[in-house]
Design a protein that fits this description.
Heme binds at residue 487. With 543 residues, the chain is α+β, with helices and mostly antiparallel strands. It is built from 23 helices and 9 strands. The longest helix has 39 residues, at 309-347. The structure holds protoporphyrin IX containing FE and 2-acetamido-2-deoxy-beta-D-glucopyranose (3 copies).
């Protein structure tokens, strides 16, 4: 019997190569092998972390690894997490590491990438330059439209609605209130107040929308982290085993709802151009118009025979809608989470003194909610910053890819000569819990954001921070990310959240009735998980 020498030799060779690549190299020789493994299997397989991702339990698992193992950990053979400023977020995010495909696999509205998911540096920064100005702090603070939107949404919608409920003596479920308020704010600035959402006025419609929107999040794992498997299952006609059909339907409903607002805004703009007048300032679609016009200018300068404007508007319709969808959803989702946890903390009996301090600070404004005046209030700022620290709405998992020969990690945990195309992430959850920077990190203590000199004015006995400590805290604060892909809406978020807080605690005191649902989901977005369908039940007491 002749042995099949050649095939056998090939098999042995293949086996040895695999053994070398997936075991010997991965465990002992790869530069990544110098990084401590989060789980015993992390250098061999991605199973452990992928399973955590699928269950939306990644953030705490990675945090636990950083606490045990230091500022750089290996969470899968080709996947690491860093937890430091130097050699961490400064190197990766301010250093412009690219986003990879995780974002556009999951965020791809109308089949067109918005800025958020664009992997390519050039395309992304061009879009970002178009949009930065409408969201700049000075633009927003001086915007007559934003000022009127704030006044109307607070005085005509939010406060009257809360007053009505408080008169009945019923507790308020605040997560839904904040989803509605945050959505109405962002959408009003993007599309103009009249053409935007009116969820504060239509709470039942709002609640349904938010339930559908949220339920989808559990399924983004498949297209985002298992794209090839998900595509394969779709080809077999088994896609619905991973992502139920109603998720696609919900996505289409959201896209249809959003593009209807774009089309209304477009009509409003064309009407204004025809009539030669702008109408009410608060009804002008500020962000929509800005992007629409920037893209129009680009098309017209590109081709020498410029197409007629209406044709060019049509050809950009979906690109603009994709971007606007992302801003409205990113804007309401994150801000509402932060506001709900803020309400929870502020309404705990042991934090009641912070309510009194806040109310004392708001009283001299006599009900004015002017953006610049609100931004100058240190207690309001401290309460919000402390909430964004302890309860970051996006607490983890912002993946990037390494360039060749990267050096990451800190101090004696520094690793040099890393290969390219390694998935690297940092997480606000862990950065915000560094006890050297934020002493007693699990405590919600707004005083840490106040300068020590201001402490004398506070009757409380909490400690403030020195200017050097405050600078260090700012370096580690990462609720909005950092670098070129940092949140474009951070100023709008700070402004609308401050206005909403002032609107509520300027008129009411709050007492927590049931906060059992206020536990963070551990996925990309850290919304409260809820308890029997309730999140943050609070009783209001009119001042
Ligand atoms: C409390 C409120 C908010 C928080 C905590 C927050 C947080 C973040 C974070 C952490 C990122 C980086 C995400 C990543 O790279 O994975 C981001 C990006 C982004 N955010 Fe926000 N955000 C908030 C509000 C808003 C608002 C109001 C808007 C509306 C305009 C917005 C629009 C965006 C967009 C468009 C990006 C992508 C930016 C880019 O890729 O250049 N966000 N946000
Ligand atoms: C959109 O807003 C304009 C005012 O800017 C208003 O005249 C128009 O009726 C609104 N469209 C819809 C469909 O609500
Ligand atoms: C608020 O009202 C008081 C008394 O009427 C006045 O002295 C103060 O200047 C007002 N403050 C503002 C910000 O308007
Ligand atoms: C890799 O980076 C290290 C440290 O930054 C540097 O000294 C070295 O020259 C680099 N090697 C290559 C091949 O670029």
């Amino acid at each position: 019997m002749a042995l099949p020498i050649i095939p056998l030799a090939a098999l042995v060779l293949l086996f040895s190569l695999a053994l070398y690549k997936y075991f010997i190299h991965a465990i002992y020789l790869s530069p990544l092998s110098r990084i401590p493994s989060a789980h015993w299997s992390s250098s061999l397989s991605a199973l452990w972390i992928q399973n955590k991702r699928r269950q939306q339990k990644e953030t705490l698992a990675v945090h636990d690894a950083h606490v045990r193992l230091g500022p750089i950990v290996r969470i899968a053979p080709n996947d690491i997490s860093v937890n430091s400023v130097d050699g961490g977020i400064r190197t990766v995010y301010a250093g412009g590491y690219e986003k990879g495909d995780w974002y556009y696999n999951a965020f791809n509205n109308y089949g067109i990438m918005p800025m958020f998911s664009m992997p390519d540096h050039g395309t992304h920064s061009k879009r970002k330059r178009m949009l930065s100005n409408v969201y700049a702090k000075s633009t927003l603070q001086n915007s007559e439209a934003m000022n009127t939107i704030t006044e109307k949404l607070l005085n005509e919608d939010l406060v009257p609605r809360l007053r009505e409920v408080s008169k009945k003596g019923e507790p308020v479920e605040f997560y839904n209130v904040f989803c509605a308020a945050a959505m109405d704010f962002v959408a009003a600035y993007v599309f103009g107040l009249k053409n935007a959402s009116h969820f504060l006025q239509e709470p039942t419609m709002g609640a349904k929308f938010f339930r559908d929107y949220k339920a989808r999040a559990a399924y983004t794992f498949w297209p985002q982290d298992m794209p090839r498997f998900t595509a394969f299952m779709s080809k077999l006609g088994l896609g619905h085993c991973l992502v139920p059909l109603w998720v696609n339907q919900a996505n289409q409903d959201i896209e249809a709802w959003l593009i209807a607002m774009c089309d209304k805004a477009e009509q409003t703009l064309q009407h204004a151009e025809l009539e030669g007048k702008k109408g009410q300032v608060e009804d002008y679609p500020t962000v929509y118009a800005h992007l629409r016009n920037s893209l129009l200018k680009e098309t017209q300068t590109k081709s020498s025979t410029s197409p007629p404007a209406s044709q060019a508007v049509d050809s950009n319709r979906l690109a603009v809608a994709s971007e606007m969808l992302d801003h409205t959803l990113a804007g309401f989702d994150t801000s509402s989470i932060a506001l709900t946890f803020l309400t929870y903390e502020l309404s705990l009996p042991q934090h009641a003194h912070w309510q009194r301090k806040l109310q004392a600070e708001l009283a001299p404004l006599n009900g004015s909610r002017d953006a610049k005046s609100l931004d100058a209030l240190p207690i309001l700022h401290a309460i919000l910053m402390e909430t964004l620290r302890l309860h970051a709405s996006i607490p983890g998992n912002q993946p990037r890819i390494t360039p060749a020969n990267a050096t990451l990690g800190a101090d004696r945990h520094t690793v040099t000569g890393l290969p390219p195309n390694v998935r690297v992430q940092a997480q606000a959850w862990s950065l915000h819990r560094n006890p050297d920077v934020f002493p007693d990190p699990e405590a919600w203590n707004p005083a840490r954001w106040l300068e020590r000199s201001e402490r004398s004015e506070l009757e409380g006995n909490e400690n403030g921070s020195t200017p050097e400590q405050l600078r260090e805290m700012q370096r580690w604060f990462w609720a909005f990310g950092s670098g070129g892909r940092m949140c474009v809406g951070s100023n709008l978020a700070m402004l609308d959240m401050k206005a909403i807080i002032a609107g509520i605690w300027g008129s009411f005191g709050t007492v927590l009735v049931d906060g059992r649902g206020m536990v963070h989901n551990g996925g990309y977005v850290a919304e409260p998980v809820g308890w029997e369908g309730k999140f943050c039940l609070v009783r209001l007491e009119e001042l």
